Structures are given as C-alpha cells and as structure tokens.
Amino acid sequence: MSSASSASQDGRRATPLAGAPADGRRLRALVERNRTALARYVARIGVPPSELDDVMQEAFMVAASRLAGLEPGTERAFLFATALHIARNTRRGMRRRQRTADEFLQLPGEPLPDADDLTDQLRARAMLEEALE
Questions:
Q1: pTM for this model (two decimals)
Q2: What is the pLDDT of residue 19?
Q3: CATH topology of domain 15-101
Q4: Which of 39, 101, 102, 123 has the highest Cβ tally under 10 A?
Q5: Which residues lie below 8 Å from residue 111, measured CB to CB, with a gap of 6+?
C-alpha cells in the first residue's frame, strides 16, 4: 500500500503545495488576479499595515495547500474567506497583546519610602552596626 493511499485510508488528506504543474499555474493565476484586491480587502477589515503582508501571505499559503481540493471557480471566494479568518485571528492576537501590555503598565510599582522612613532605616542600621561591634 502506498503512503498516499494509507493516508487517505485513515482519514488524513495529503495537501501538497501546488504539487501538479496545473496547480502551479492555477496558484500563479490566483495570486496575480487577486493580490491587489486582497490587500485592499484585508486593510479595509482592520488589519494594520504592519501585519498586511503576513496576513496575505498566510492566506495564499492556505489557499495553495488546499487548491487541489477546490472546485475551479471557487478559488477567489475561498481565498477571501480564508483571509477574513486569518485577519480576525491577527486582530484578536493584537488586542490580547495590547491588553497584556496595558495591564503590565498599570501594575502598581513599589512605593518609594518617604524621608522619615529612610531616616529610620539609617538609624536602625547605625544602631545594628554599633551593637555588632
């Protein structure tokens, strides 16, 4: 039994990245036709410019890995739906990191001792040193 047939036997599906030459052409066409529109869409749904390229790359990678299983003509819809899910995850992660940073900044710091406390500490240290001599 080949590894491909054993993978399909136990329920896993092999998902090569554009394995066949036709898939490679199909992927190139998908990227060329949709790159600009996808960038506008991802920016419009709230992905900051610093994350735009990463979200687009991940969406194209997912589309490439699933391209063989997609019906011809559904690639664009799949690509944009995938980008939406990735964008939501990205925005959620950014909010989570921002919340963590905000909580860290709001942690109360160690209170600084006032002048009387410092004076008392100096006196106590001097008394301790005198007693130890």
A1: 0.61
A2: 53
A3: Rna Polymerase Sigma Factor; Chain: A (1.10.1740)
A4: 39
A5: none
Tokens at residue 6, please?
């054993």
pLDDT at 49 over 90: yes
**Tens digits of residue pLDDT in 29-41:** 999 999 999 999 9
Q: 51-70, pLDDT tens digit by residue?
A: 999 999 999 999 999 999 99
55 CB-near residues (< 8 Å, 6+ apart): 42, 47, 83, 86, 87, 90
One-letter-per-residue 3-state SS of the chain:
CCHHHHHHHCCCCCCCCCCCHHHHHHHHHHHHHHHHHHHHHHHHCCCCHHHHHHHHHHHHHHHHHHHHHCCCCCHHHHHHHHHHHHHHHHHHHHHHHHHHHHHHHCCCCCCCCCHHHHHHHHHHHHHHHHHHC
Distance between CA atoms of residues 89 and 83, nearest Å: 10
- Tokens encoding 124: 């106590």
Between CA 72 and CA 109 the distance in angstroms is: 60
Question: Per the structure block, which two tokens stand in for 117?
Answer: 């406390």
Q: Is 111 exposed, middle or buried (0-12, 13-18, 19+ CB in 10 A)?
A: exposed
